[in-house]
Amino acid sequence: MSTRAWVRRAAVTACVLVACLRGVTLLAHPTATSFVVIHVVNGAPSGPISVSVTSEARPLLMKLEALAGAAPSSANLPAGAVDARIAALGTTLVQHVELDLDGTRADLTVRGVERLKDRPEEVRVLLANNSPSTPATTIRWRTSLFFGSYPLAVRAGDASAMAPEAEQYEWLSGAELSQPYRLDAVATPQAGWRHASRLVLIGFTHILPGGFDHVLFVLGLFLLASNARTLLLQISAFTVAHSCTLALAMAGWVRLPGAIVEPLIAASIAYIAIENLMTTRLSKWRLGVVFLFGLLHGLGFAGALASLGLSDGHFAATLVGFNAGVELGQLAVVLGAAVIVYGLGLTPERYQRLLVRPASAAIAAMGIFWAIERVL
């Protein structure tokens, strides 16, 4: 096949796959810009229950104005005015959130809107529960404010303490109803290992099914691996790098805005795939490039972890558990790809022509698409 014919086939394949995958772009790297924390003060069934909803201020205001049928505010509205407008639309916000106490919807009101000091583009909306203080056994949560995935944390302990006595987490999608949380179980402090085990699942689901961009990056590494050694070298460089920046970012020593990190992550996916199209063997600079991109992806993982609104109560357990889940997710991707390739039984030439080149072209196109989408 001529070079021109190959380029034409790869381009057509890429366009078809991008069109098919366009509907799942919301699944790419769920670094939620919104999260919800339900705080059970002192973990007592009859104690006060409060809720905080954290989200980017201006997108939240746009949603509330649309839901209320109000005229959209000016894009140049000062931060203080944005916060005041969100508070004024508190009734609309409360209509689209639901805190269930033993099957009865709680009476929530907005009692404050505050900016986050470390992320000034985000606001925390504080909701108070005005329901009669009768003992509740279980609580559940849902909201129609968010269209994508977002994390929910349920905490017990003194609200003024830096670290809660206990906390549990889960990812919800759109208006999905949370699992029921027994208040007596929430109030039971968790040992570090149990806390870590919960974070393993969150880390895994951050890759599968939630981190489609990370999946494509790992597949890009896999496609250029002619043998287990080259694959191991690339995965090891990537793992060491993202583990370092994840730990540094969690410790607060490294920080880079998501508006910068996310487009760069998408660009890294495109670069790896394009390099796959230009060579059939591991170049001398490939491992260095993979390591640098791993540093970027680690910041992305840190952003996703920060978006959980996690406390600092179990730093080491959180780091180990989440990172272990990420590694298991990546391993599942590699093993799945290996099983498929082995089952096809292609010769090296046919493997390059029928799988590596079209798949790399599609991955490159998707990476470029995401990079542009995330910048805009």
Terminal residue distance? 38 Å
| Overall strand count | 10
Main β-sheet description: 6 strands, mixed
- Order of strands across the widest beta sheet? 5-6-2-1-8-9
Radius of gyration in whole Å, from Cα? 23 Å
What number is the mean pLDDT? 80
Q: Given the C-alpha coordinates, what overall shape results?
A: elongated
List the secondary-structure elements in sequence, H or E.
HEEHHHEEEEEEEEHHHHHHHH
Number of helices: 12
Classify the helix fraction into a percent range.
40-55%
Residue share in β-strands: 15-25%
Uncertain stretches of 5 or more adjacent residues: 1-31
- Which structural class matches the secondary elements? alpha+beta
Number of domains: 2
In short:
39% of the residues are buried. This protein has helices spanning 3-21, 57-68, 79-88, 90-95, 183-186, 192-207, 212-223, 228-250, 258-278, 286-306, 315-344, 348-375; strands at residues 35-41, 49-56, 97-101, 104-105, 108-115, 122-129, 138-143, 149-157, 166-173, 181-182.
SSE layout and pairing:
Blueprint: H1 3-21, E1 35-41, E2 49-56, H2 57-68, H3 79-88, H4 90-95, E3 97-101, E4 104-105, E5 108-115, E6 122-129, E7 138-143, E8 149-157, E9 166-173, E10 181-182, H5 183-186, H6 192-207, H7 212-223, H8 228-250, H9 258-278, H10 286-306, H11 315-344, H12 348-375
Parallel strand pairs: 1-8
Antiparallel strand pairs: 1-2, 2-6, 3-4, 3-7, 5-6, 7-10, 8-9
Helix pairs in contact: 1-12, 2-3, 6-11, 7-9, 7-11, 7-12, 8-10, 8-11, 9-10, 9-12
